[in-house]
Amino acid sequence: KAGVTQTPRYLIKTRGQQVTLSCSPISGHRSVSWYQQTPGQGLQFLFEYFSETQRNKGNFPGRFSGRQFSNSRSEMNVSTLELGDSALYLCASSLEARGGPNEQFFGPGTRLTVL
Amino acid sequence: AQSVTQPDIHITVSEGASLELRCNYSYGATPYLFWYVQSPGQGLQLLLKYFSGDTLVQGIKGFEAEFKRSQSSFNLRKPSVHWSDAAEYFCAVGTYSGGGADGLTFGKGTHLIIQP
Fold it and tell me: Which residues contact B55 (CB under 8 A, 6 or more apart)?
């Protein structure tokens, strides 16, 4: 099976712009989670989607949003970019079998640079 | 809320020597524990996980970890490291509320350097 794919791999934007990142989960995986990784704050959970619904959310401002499509692919959007949004954005998918936890499989990430 | 502490920011080990990376967690219920490895510019690769059962878990690349509830620890070990093991290692705790998996909480990571 192909792994989690993320596009684009690299992105450069300027302050005030918005950006959309895309994630395709492993085939058959229905849960998609997003994380932000920065040198200062480390890895932080953004949100998780399952069956096109946001099920869990981390502590990020409303400028960060996402959605999931019927084929489980997911996008995240950041509006009004700030310099501090420069980070590696990681997407992870999991099988989400009922009755217990599942391991998350991560994509290679999208490196966002805000100038 | 849960938290994860990795006390060692950097660790230097000679090639062929044994390795132990420390991880302590804080969580009120039974945690689900993970170790991930990240090479420069890459995503995270799962090394091993603990959900329940045997407290000594085996993972990929010759790694193992032991869950010690009394010490709230989940330390990662490898008997003999290879130069290719140089990377960033992250311990993480996950929770499951019945409504689905909550987001993973990660430690700050341990940067492993291998000396020839």
Answer: B66, B67, B68, B69
| Residue that the structure tokens 């953004």 belong to | A46
Whether residue B103 and residue A42 make contact (CB cut-off 8 A), yes or no, is no
Q: How many CA atoms lie within 13 A of A66 on its CB side?
A: 32
Of B44, B94, B95, the CB nearest to A90: B44
Residue A55's pLDDT is 86
Which residue is it, tokens 């705790």? B93
3-state secondary structure of B28: coil
- pLDDT of B28 reads 73
Distance from CA of A94 to the nearest CA of B (A): 9
Summarised one tens digit per residue, pLDDT across range A64-112 is 999 999 999 999 999 999 999 999 999 999 987 655 677 899 999 999 9
C-beta atoms of A106 and B34 within 8 A: no
- Nearest residue of B to residue A97 by CA position? B100
